[in-house]
Write a structure and sequence with these properties.
- With 146 residues, the chain is mainly α.
- It has one domain: nmb1532 protein domain like (Four Helix Bundle (Hemerythrin (Met), subunit A), Up-down Bundle).
- It is 79% helix and 0% strand.
- The chain is elongated and about 45 Å long.
- The two termini are 24 Å apart.
Length: 146
């Protein structure tokens, strides 16, 4: 149940789907587009993932740390690992070396992480988030619609 306004779980899960779509666009570009298109799609994907992490770390994790410290720490470790993979793939993109196979580890990790969050962190955060948190989350995840 939400306290009026948007459902936190639905908002975050929708952002996971948006990131999945951005990755599909990147995959399609890698398979046949020019470097400019690949770079643009990479930038969109990377920014989306980093904005999602920032939103979770600033707004969701603090709600959960007192009751679910171990899970929040695991999520933070996952985020750091993905940031490392993103940096590596960003360099490959800049050097025109990004290939679909190279991104598979990153995407597998992101999918696994997203499924875990959907089962654990998001339902827990749902009952703790106030309207102000939901509004701030929406702004961080979808700045163009704010």
């Amino acid at each position: 149940m939400t306290h009026g306004g948007e459902d936190i779980h639905a908002l975050l899960a929708a952002d996971h789907r948006r990131l999945e779509q951005l990755f599909c666009e990147l995959e399609n570009a890698v398979e046949g587009a020019d470097q400019r298109t690949i770079q643009r799609d990479w930038t969109d994907f990377e920014r989306g993932v980093l904005a999602h992490f920032e939103a979770e770390e600033r707004l969701i994790f603090p709600l959960l740390e007192s009751e679910h410290a171990r899970e929040v720490e695991q999520a933070k470790r996952d985020h750091e690992l993905v940031r490392t993979l993103l940096a590596n793939l960003g360099v490959r993109t800049d050097l025109h070396l990004l290939r679909k196979e190279v991104a598979d580890e990153l995407i597998a990790r992101l999918r696994e992480h997203a499924a875990w969050e959907d089962r654990t962190l998001y339902p827990w955060a749902q009952g703790k988030a106030c309207g102000e948190t939901r509004g701030a989350l929406r702004k961080l995840l979808m700045p163009e619609s704010s």
